[in-house]
Structure to design on (115 residues):
């Protein structure tokens, strides 16, 4: 991702939902991020049908974190496991309507490692 973000127009970044296959699998590998400098690795497994990738596109440095470091544009990434956006309006998408009496239960596992 890092090598491509600067190729996007200046006012953009990543804010995309990716389809994971198969939909009905339990805890399929959804994403892997790695930092070559530190060797840190994040692996995401989920039973959700999609994952949203967001690259903090609107951070402008006006907020400072607890260590005194400003939050800058593209300074962080979020991986959000989820159903597809606008699912209730698309019959071909996996079902997302929770009916009275039903239970909603999903599982996402974040595995942190070092290479």
């Amino acid at each position: 991702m890092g090598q491509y973000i600067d190729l996007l127009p200046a006012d953009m970044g990543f804010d995309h939902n990716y389809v994971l296959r198969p939909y009905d699998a339990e805890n399929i590998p959804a994403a892997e991020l790695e930092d070559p400098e530190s060797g840190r690795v994040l692996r995401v497994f989920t039973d959700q049908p999609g994952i949203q990738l967001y690259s903090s596109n609107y951070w402008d440095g006006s907020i400072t974190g607890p260590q005194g470091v400003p939050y800058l544009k593209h300074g962080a990434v979020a991986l959000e496991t989820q159903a597809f956006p606008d699912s209730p309006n698309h019959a071909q998408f996996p079902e997302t309507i929770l009916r009275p009496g039903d239970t909603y239960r999903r599982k996402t596992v974040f595995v942190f490692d070092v290479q």
